[in-house]
Amino acid sequence: MKFRDNSQTRKVELQLAPMVDVVFLLLMYFVVSWNFAKFESEVNISVPKAENSSPTEQSPGELVIGVAPDGSVTVNNQALTREQLFEKLTRVASLFPGQAVILRGDGDAEFTYVMAVLDLCQKAGIWNVAFASAPPSPQG
After folding, report:
1. CB count in 10 Å sphere of residue 117
2. Please, what sign has the CA dihedral across residues 80, 83, 86, 88?
3. CATH code for 16-131?
4. I need a labelling partner for 45 at 20 to 30 A (CA). Which of 10, 24, 65, 98 fits?
5. How many CB atoms lie within 10 A of CB 63?
6. Who wins on pLDDT, 33 or 70?
7. CA angle in degrees (0–180, nearest 5) for 74-86-100
8. CB–CB of 89/124 below 8 Å?
9. Quick check: 101 and 65 in contact, CB under 8 A?
10. Of residues 36 and 97, which shows the higher confidence score?
């Protein structure tokens, strides 16, 4: 019977290259996802409260359209006119069919401003529109 000679077995070494690759991929993922998430919170718009409001994850590439109380429109923290918004939405709809759009209308904004932006989305061919809301404040 033949037994292994333990003096000649090599020790298993930990390979660092694959581990470093995984760490860098995770780091890039979190940096990119943080960059997209900051667009929604930078705009000074207080969305209306809703009973069934629940936080959702923002997918990469989502457009966040903010409508301020004075009717001004921002897309990912960039102020746009109605014509510029329509051009941007048309371009996005042609390049990415089914593109998601989050409409953040301020609670104090007139309904006509929000409907004008919704109408522009419809004219541009964007059908995947969600309305942002906040959870109700706790009763104290």
Report:
1. 25
2. negative
3. 3.30.420.270
4. 98
5. 20
6. 70
7. 70
8. yes
9. yes
10. 97
44-89: pLDDT as tens digits: 555 555 555 455 555 556 788 888 888 888 887 788 899 999 999 9
User: Higher model confidence: residue 62 or residue 41?
Assistant: 62
Coil, strand or helix: which one is 131? strand
Strand bridging mode 101-105 / 73-75: unpaired
pTM tops 0.85: no
User: Look-up: residue for tokens 């048309």?
Assistant: 90
CB 113 within 8 A of CB 72: no
Q: Output the CA angle 133-137-139, nearest 5 degrees.
A: 150
Kindly list the domain boundaries of the chain, sorted by start residue: 16-131
Identify whether the C-beta of residue 128 lies closer than 8 Å to the C-beta of residue 120: no
